[in-house]
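Input record (one chain):
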Amino acid sequence: MQDYDVVIVGGGPGGLSCARHLSNSGLKILVLEKNNTLGKKICSGEVSSKTFPGVKFKNEQKWETVVVGTHKGTVPVSYNRPFLWTVGRFELETFLKNNSDAVIHFSEPVVEITPDYVVTSKAKYKYKFLVGADGSFSRVRDYLKLPMKHIVGWAFHFIIDKPADRFAVYWLPNTFPKGYGYVMSKSLGKTMIGGAMVERSDNSKESVHQVLAPKVKEWVAKEFGLDVNKLKSEGMKGNADYRGWKFNNVFLVGDAAGLLNPLTTEGIFYAVKSGEGVAKFIRRDPEGQKIMNSMQNAHRWQVLIFDIATAWPFCWLVHWILSNPKGWLRSKIFNYVFWKFMDG
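The corresponding structure, as predicted from the sequence alone:
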């Protein structure tokens, strides 16, 4: 059995951010990643300005126009500064990895967790602190016996092998109840076209395969004229059921903690920031507790807005705003909420 001060389960943005902020601490850090390389998660490779302030990525694509769609059509809304950058998951995670002194083991899924050590497919590792950064299907969250029923979301999309020509969000209550359609970058060379829906209960994979996927297939074929039978598709789960981040010497970050914006399904920022918060808490830096308090408060606000925006008839108020986001009153509401989400 090998001894480590901190074992981090999951080598995505949350786990690698935690490892990054534990660097030069004198602690012995291990990151366990089940995949064989970085950037394997099924989601967008776009980041907002609040995620890495002041950091520039090579070949990043800036987005200054958001296309807003409803059943009445689409409206482009342009700004004089970027709100998102397409970076790509592999590039983003490589940046975090290269700024960490942690030991990282790939192709090593965790199969058992005890109060003192974790067991993988290859070895046992003793820990003083355990960090669960292993996403919506978190084994560490399962070990803590935390339910995941409050707000659970699914996304399903098709992949086009060419760069995205737009960043678009479609508010279509009749098509995607408590959700939206989207066109965005998966990476610098690929586009995702699909939909996301959030629910108050977890119907497991039935939600994505039996409910969401058929809606997305019909909408994509009709709206974009694509033969979906010839396209690769992906489905993923998002967890916004937040029930805490600190459980004695075990911590949760990102999706594993439920720190996901239920309205926008943005997860990368919350994974990166909560990873930083947990790392600083382990280092006994008071800033860590402040960061996690901020994460909790932001999540409560997001859940409240989600409840209001998706409740009948408020979803049609949102539809009224988005059908003409350039209107005098509607633009003020849209711009305030939009930049609140982008800038934090």
